[in-house]
């Protein structure tokens, strides 16, 4: 993919080929429409010739029945008429057939009173003609009437064929020119987008691809989509960079403290209070373990690892987690009985512990945990009586390694990841975790679909 982006602009031959392909399709469409038009014209001319034959026959049949056929029949132009008596002699003919033998030898036998054939040419005439022959029965025998008209080609006439061919070529040429211009313009805009994308790397994610002209809406939509993607990529990269920096800092601090205590103990072993030093080192290791555990948890959540959905009694789960260990402040439980929901109990327990641990670090004397359920959702609230969170910081505290200047900023007792993990767990369950208004302290509200 990178090689494709680094390749040069689309060659003119490719643009020309695409234009030719489109023009070929357009030409085929026009050819099909022209053929249909020519067939329509040919059918129309054939219908006109049929009408001429019918008109001539309707005028001559009464005269033949009465025996009053004139010697010269009115068959001007390309219409040829011939009347034969029972002996096969020409009684009347149009000017072109005077003195000529019969133009057709059918129907010689059989009973049909009408027959039609295409002769190329009929006797005494030139070119292919449609010859209609009619029998007229009289007391003295059977008389024949031959009427011939030129056979119309399927395309009607040469004039129409030339006109349609010229029009098709002209339209195809115009479409080809317009298509090549449009394709060349669009390919130029796409080239500009591709070249800009090829030059963007991690060092300049703030660059954006250029927009096309206002009348190139599809190209502009592509450019806007690419720019939106670059916006999200830049934000994700910045977040990853901050996260990496914060994680490195939080891991380095306890490591530095542990290393310092151990180096001091090794340098002055006789002056070292080994039990106190061991307890301090163990506290640093515990903090390192907590940070690493939270980082692994976030990695699993980011990887969208599947949840283990179970029908869970949340009332019992919350009650058990709150009784699991002693806390420095009182915990007041306000739990609705028999609240049941489909969820991953281990992750919901982790979410609850993170919220209560956060509340304990900032509470003055009491934490209140309430659990309620309605027809559609379960609501869990954790409320402390601390300093609270300013409205403008209520989303900031859910970012990873968030640091606030206010009284609820992350202290030495937390990893800075607990609230971020809690929100990720809530969202993985299709729920929400927000901070709502309260009279005092911070009020965290979790809503999960039942």
Describe this structure in words.
- 49% of the residues lie in helices and 17% in strands.
- By secondary structure, it is α+β, with helices and mostly antiparallel strands.
- Helix 4 packs antiparallel against helix 5.
Number of helices: 8
Shape descriptor reads rod-shaped
* Beta-strand content: 15-25%
Radius of gyration: 49 Å
Q: What is the average per-residue confidence, as pLDDT, rounded to a whole number?
A: 81
Could you spell the SSE succession in H and E letters? Answer: HHEEEEEHHHEHEEHEEHEE
Low-confidence stretches: 1-13, 406-410
Descriptors:
12 strands, 5-stranded mixed β-sheet, 450 residues, 8 helices, 49% helix
Quickly describe the structure.
This protein is an alpha+beta fold and 450 residues long. Helices cover 49% and strands 17% of the residues.
């Amino acid at each position: 993919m990178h090689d494709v982006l680094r390749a040069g602009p689309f060659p003119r031959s490719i643009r020309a080929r695409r234009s030719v392909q489109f023009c070929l399709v357009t030409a085929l469409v026009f050819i099909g429409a022209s053929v249909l038009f020519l067939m329509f014209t040919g059918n129309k001319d054939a219908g006109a010739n049929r009408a001429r034959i019918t008109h001539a026959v309707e005028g001559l049949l009464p005269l033949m029945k009465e025996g009053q056929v004139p010697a010269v029949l009115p068959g001007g132009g390309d219409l040829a008429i011939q009347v034969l008596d029972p002996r096969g002699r020409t009684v009347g003919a149009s000017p072109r057939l005077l003195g000529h033998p019969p133009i057709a030898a059918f129907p010689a036998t059989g009973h049909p009173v009408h027959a039609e054939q295409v002769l190329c040419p009929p006797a005494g005439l030139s070119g292919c003609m449609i010859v209609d022959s009619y029998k007229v029965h009289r007391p003295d025998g059977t008389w024949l009437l031959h009427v011939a008209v030129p056979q119309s080609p399927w395309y009607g006439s040469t004039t129409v064929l030339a006109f349609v061919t010229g029009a098709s070529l002209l339209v195809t040429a115009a479409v080809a020119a317009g298509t090549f211009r449009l394709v060349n313009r669009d390919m130029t805009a796409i080239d500009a987008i591709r070249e800009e994308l090829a030059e963007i790397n991690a060092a300049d994610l703030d660059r954006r691809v250029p927009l096309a002209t206002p009348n190139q809406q599809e190209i502009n939509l592509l450019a806007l989509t690419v720019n939106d993607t670059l916006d999200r990529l830049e934000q994700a990269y910045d977040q990853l960079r901050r996260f990496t920096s914060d994680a490195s800092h939080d891991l380095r601090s306890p490591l530095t403290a542990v290393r310092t205590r151990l180096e001091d103990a090794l340098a002055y072993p006789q002056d070292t209070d080994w039990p106190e030093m061991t307890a301090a080192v163990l506290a640093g290791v515990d903090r390192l373990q907590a940070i690493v555990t939270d980082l692994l948890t976030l990695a699993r959540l980011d990887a969208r690892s599947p949840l283990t959905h179970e029908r869970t009694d949340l009332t019992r789960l919350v009650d058990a987690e709150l009784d699991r260990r002693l806390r420095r402040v009182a915990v007041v439980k306000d739990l609705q009985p028999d609240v049941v929901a489909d969820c991953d109990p281990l992750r919901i327990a982790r979410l609850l512990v993170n919220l209560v641990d956060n509340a304990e670090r900032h509470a003055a004397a009491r934490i209140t945990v309430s659990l309620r359920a309605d027809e559609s959702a379960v609501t869990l609230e954790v409320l402390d009586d601390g300093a609270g969170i300013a409205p403008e910081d209520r989303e900031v505290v859910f970012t990873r390694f968030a640091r606030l200047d206010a009284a609820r900023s992350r202290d030495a007792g937390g990893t800075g990841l607990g609230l971020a993990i809690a929100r990720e767990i809530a969202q993985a369950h299709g729920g929400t975790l927000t901070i709502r208004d309260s009279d005092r302290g911070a009020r965290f509200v979790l809503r999960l679909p039942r």
